[in-house]
TrEMBL record:
Residues 69-228 form the Glycylpeptide N-tetradecanoyltransferase N-terminal domain. This is Glycylpeptide N-tetradecanoyltransferase. It comes from Pichia californica. Adds a myristoyl group to the N-terminal glycine residue of certain cellular proteins. It is an enzyme of class 2 (transferase). Belongs to the NMT family. GO terms for molecular function: glycylpeptide N-tetradecanoyltransferase activity. It holds the Pfam family NMT_C. The keyword Repeat does not apply. Keywords: Acyltransferase, Transferase. GO terms for cellular component: cytoplasm. The keyword Transferase applies.
């Protein structure tokens, strides 16, 4: 995580390999990958031993193609009915996320073997509530929570997940899934389990007559649909300094850094309040009116909004936090904004045992609705509104002991990231759609400098 004015992080104090793994920690990337700058020259397709066999766009394709599925001829009859062969020491398993035992095993696998920093000082503190929210949305399939166990001991050593995630790409609605949480035990990463997990989840999804999948990576694979950059906003600089996330910039004092990053104690947006269940219909309409701004967005039903944005059964204030703005005269909800929480456990530190991390999620505002996304007057009004909404969301996050507020350059985030003192992170996130060819979508970063751009992105879908 890099901050403004030369502020360094724990990653900056160590060697380059450590810096990359700490960037991975913030990005929550697939375990066998390291982040590359989005302008890193791609390898030839022959070097991608797995991906060159898959229906994904190639780097050398021209822009004259017609957008749509790459392999449109395949049918369920063409899909193998049995799982792919696996090494005799291992066996496939389908995790039962209704089972506390399976949830505990998934927690242990991700805690020990998902993304972490070089010194294993920081670990993601997953919870059952988080798993229930992230892996069990409306329409979730038990069969898409795929693990690999050691046959003799039953120990879980690998995992991959798929959840429903229908998309709109430039006006074309696509039945799709989101693939996430690819994790392989550190000592088994030479066994080529990751490609096998991808093939197996693809097979199971295809058997449901679904042929596209959304996924992300910090690595440049064939071929990114878009690339966004991470931004990080300290809310508790003093604590971040004490756990090693932040170092003291030259010419600054601890007091001056705390003063520069301190927020007001109270929100200022008139009509601001916590979202209620009775707001779901209004938020659903607002979301759908809003998402047409973007070239790629997630299609949500009311049940999806209830789960992803309101929180559904997990509405206990632990994972997803959503606020609305209600017009005091009409009582109409005019805006909503949400963030989710996924803290770190801190090891080997006498002062703190955790770091509170929040991630900006979906939002929408009546400001700018119906206006062309590049309209300058509309963008200025929207910029002012979003700065107010995000600032108040960070104030709410600080109240629940969040120490860092993260946001990508996706959605309309580039309009406020610099003004609200988000430091541009070292990490980039590439978006991919499996078995779908589409022209590049702007991700809110400057093509030349990789700095946050001054205009909105075309990416309206948020990945966990």
């Amino acid at each position: 995580m890099s901050e403004n004015k030369g502020q360094k992080t724990l990653a900056d104090l160590k060697d380059e390999s450590t810096k990359k793994t700490l960037a991975d920690l913030f990005q929550r990337l697939a375990v066998e990958q390291e982040p590359e700058a989005p302008d890193a020259p791609p390898k030839s397709m022959d070097e991608y031993k797995f991906w060159k066999t898959q229906p994904v766009p190639r780097f050398d394709e021209k822009d004259s193609f017609k957008e749509g599925p790459i392999d449109a001829e395949k049918t369920i009859a063409d899909v193998r009915t049995e799982p792919y062969p696996i090494h005799s020491s291992f066996e496939w398993t389908t995790l039962d996320l209704e089972s506390d035992e399976d949830l505990d095993q998934l927690y242990e696998l991700l805690y020990d073997h998902y993304v972490e920093d070089h010194d294993a000082t920081f670990r993601f503190a997953y919870s059952r509530t988080f798993f229930n929210w992230a892996l069990k949305p409306p329409g979730w399939e038990h069969n898409w929570h795929i693990g690999v166990r050691v046959k003799d001991t039953g120990r879980l050593i690998a995992f991959i997940s798929g959840v429903p995630c229908d998309l709109t790409i430039r006006g074309n609605d696509i039945k799709s899934v989101e693939i996430n949480f690819l994790c392989v035990h550190k000592q088994l990463r030479s066994k080529r389990l990751a490609p096998l997990l991808i093939k197996e989840v693809t097979r199971r999804v295809n058997l449901k007559n679904i042929w596209q999948a959304l996924y992300s990576s910090g690595t440049v694979l064939p071929k990114p649909l878009s690339t966004c950059r991470y931004g990080h906003r300290p809310l508790n600089w003093g604590k971040l300094y004490e756990v090693g996330f932040s170092s003291l910039p030259q010419g600054e004092t601890k007091a001056s850094m705390i003063a520069k990053t301190t927020l007001s104690n109270e929100t200022k947006t008139v009509g601001w309040r916590k979202m209620k269940e009775e707001d779901i219909d209004t938020v659903y309409k607002l979301y759908n009116d809003w998402r047409v701004r973007y070239e790629i967005s997630q299609i949500m039903t009311k049940e999806d909004v209830k789960h992803w944005i309101y929180g559904g059964k997990q509405q206990d204030g632990k994972v997803i936090h959503t606020y609305v703005v209600e017009d005091k005269d009409t009582k109409r909800v005019t805006d909503f904004i949400s963030f989710y929480v996924l803290p770190f456990t801190v090891l080997q530190n006498e002062l703190h045992d955790n770091v509170g991390i929040a991630y900006l999620y979906y939002y929408a505002s009546e400001t700018g609705l119906g206006k062309f996304i590049k309209d300058e007057e509309s963008q200025e009004l929207l910029k002012k509104r979003l700065k107010s909404l995000v600032n108040d969301a960070m104030i709410e996050a600080k109240k629940i002991n969040i120490d860092v507020f993260n946001a990508l350059s996706s959605q309309d985030n580039a309009l406020f990231l610099d003004d609200l003192k988000f430091g541009a992170g070292d990490g980039f996130l590439n978006y991919y759609v499996f078995n779908y060819r589409a022209k590049h979508i702007e991700g809110g970063i400057d093509d030349t400098t990789n700095a946050f751009s001054k205009t909105s992105s075309g990416v309206g879908v948020v990945l966990l």
